Amino acid sequence: MHEVNYTRKNIQGGEGDASMSELADRVNALNWWHVIELPDGTITPGCCDYRKEEDRARFQLPDDFKGQSVLDLGTFDGYWAIEAKKRGANVTAADRWLPMLETAELALSLYDIGYFWTDNLDDSDWNITEYFDIVFFFGILYHLKNPYQGLLNAARCLKPGGKLFLESAVNQGKLMGMPKDIPLLWVIDEIHHNDKTNYHMPNEAAIIQLAKMAGLERYGEIVYGESGFRVGMTFQKK
Predict the structure, then answer these.
(1) How far apart are the C-alpha atoms of 116 and 172, rounded to whole Å?
(2) Nearest Cα to 230, choosing from 32, 16, 56, 36?
(3) Does residue 5 lie within any of the structural domains?
(4) Residue 215 contacts residue 155 (beta carbons within 8 Å)
(5) Mean pLDDT score of the chain, rounded to an integer?
(6) Counted domains in the chain
(7) Distance between CA atoms of 90 and 133, rounded to whole angstroms?
(8) How far is 4 from 27, CA to CA, in rounded Å?
């Protein structure tokens, strides 16, 4: 297997290199998805706000990650990596989404979080040489052309007994008016939600089966978001 180009680095240009006004200017000049509270109290102008516990309940993060290593796959602008760091974890973030790279670099640098650039997560030769207690797999599954391979690769990042926290869009009898017994609804000749990387929508049973095939067993509750279109699950490596 070819190894992922793993580079743990701290990005230059953090809080110590700029005044508060300069930092605010940098923050406002970037494109943010999440509302993130930065160390100096600056709030990023994102559209997705998970500061209320009820809004992030489906992610099922414990209050304390002290002493645990966390890999945030698909970190996007770094929100969940930062949440894990705030809860005591030793965090590494990973992504390959160029439109959000500068944003993530700024946010992660302020919290001294290392990151690495990934190749396609669902490639069969994807591999990593460091292993983690926890892997976050948030908002990724339905963006993968090969969802099984992506989950398998994520599972390979875990230590034995490690846990994977998964959150995904889900077709549970509500999406497009389709019956919930369709396990994996592929988006064919159509862009769903104006995103051409939304390749499919799994239902609950499909997610559990894909995880089982990847060597993971379900651990904890299945928690839906208020809309019913998104779900959170946790799995443990056998």
Answers:
(1) 34
(2) 56
(3) no
(4) yes
(5) 86
(6) 1
(7) 10
(8) 30
